[in-house]
Amino acid sequence: MDITRWQESPSRIIYHEGKYHTIIMHIGRNKPDGRAVAENIYVTSDDSYKWTVEGILPNGEAGSWDDKWREGATIVKFDGKFWMFYSGLSKNAEFQKKYRGSIGLLVADSPAGPWKRAVTEPLLQPSEDPAAWDHDYLNNPYPVYFKGKWFLYYKAANKKMFGGSTNGGVAIADSITGPYYKQENNPLFDAHGSWAWVYRGGIAVLPFRGGKIHWSPDGVHFTNVYTPRQGGFNAPLFSSFYLPNDPLSGDPVTQEEPDVIWGLETRQYGPKPVEERDWDLFRGTISFNPVKKTKIKNTSSSNATGAEGEILTP
What we know:
Blueprint: E1 6-8, E2 14-16, E3 19-28, E4 37-45, E5 52-56, E6 69-78, E7 81-89, H1 93-99, E8 103-108, E9 116-117, E10 137-146, E11 149-157, H2 159-162, E12 166-173, E13 181-182, E14 189-190, E15 195-199, E16 202-206, E17 213-216, E18 223-226, E19 240-241, E20 260-268, E21 279-288, E22 293-298, E23 308-312
Antiparallel strand pairs: 1-3, 2-3, 3-4, 4-5, 6-7, 7-8, 8-9, 10-11, 11-12, 12-13, 12-14, 15-16, 16-17, 17-18, 19-20, 20-21, 21-22, 22-23
């Protein structure tokens, strides 16, 4: 891995065959042609502190709608297989104009691959209505399996409506391969991507914007349960946690919701300007008090000192 390039946005952390598995975005900036060079790096760890690069995930075959990059990839384990959701970008200008970050799905027998298409066409595409909130593009898919249905959360934009801001919505399906139906009350919240998981009989969401934490009893109608910045600290940004009680995270270790979970968080690497590398990944833990409050404690295997704060739980 080239440490002069960005490292950010870890996918859901999977535990399989004695190792932790995740995917991170590996991005270079300021290239001579002015274009970003982006890859999805597959990494594993025995202890969750030291990670080893195992390979680079391939893009779609030449001439396909996702042959430039499969962005925002995340993996879940379901029905004995591993499923990768992602947003596809194309080198073909006509395809890019048509698909605009549509969400695709791959399947494999192992988190190491090899990966093949689970469906030929995208699971979800931007709206063709110029007035729709998700007309311009889609990105950052995040699936949750809840009460027998698939809730696919995603980020979308419409610059004419919201300027440079993005929002989060959801599409729901009975099967992991779809069809997925967008909800009429989208968008659900202001978000620049989200991390979502089943929590306390509902779904909790970190929308990666505004430092807010949301919770919903049905996965559709969300309440902002707390804004950590009001307590003087930030909620995790572009983060992913390992949930040992969630079958989507691989081999379950416990049937109980843990009081303490760990994950990987994207943080600013150093003061600007930075020649190439602006973001880095840090390991952190979150401690849950099941009665009144939650403590967040960030730790790192590098030189970060970490911070601690408290948030309310739903």
